[in-house]
Amino acid sequence: MHDGCAGNFTSGMDIINKLRTMGFGAQLMPSVLTIKCENCHTSFQMATFESKCPDCDMVYGVTPCHAHDAAAVLAAGVGV
To answer: Domain of 15?
Structure first.
């Protein structure tokens, strides 16, 4: 069941699982966010709800409800 914006996610993998289940991962976000990879420290543009660092393949996710806030983007792991 979809819980809208009330979902509580404790990890990046929780977000990625939700995005993949709902089919939102590859959808374009309303605006592009600049993210600094916590693994390799490369800055990159995150344009879809699920994105990978172009240098180290760390996967990041953000829910559609929080896509306006770079602080809501969470890392899920390398190559997940």
So the answer is: 10-78
Does residue 63 form part of some domain?
A: yes
pLDDT tens across the length of the chain (80 residues): 345 566 678 899 999 999 999 999 999 999 999 999 999 999 999 999 999 999 999 999 999 999 999 999 999 999 99
Size of the chain in residues:
80
Q: Domain tally for the chain?
A: 1
CA distance linking residue 72 with residue 18, whole number of Å: 15
**78 in the Ramachandran plot: left (φ > 0), alpha (ψ -120 to 50) or beta?**
beta
Q: Is residue 2 part of a domain?
A: no
**Three-state secondary structure call for residue 47:** strand
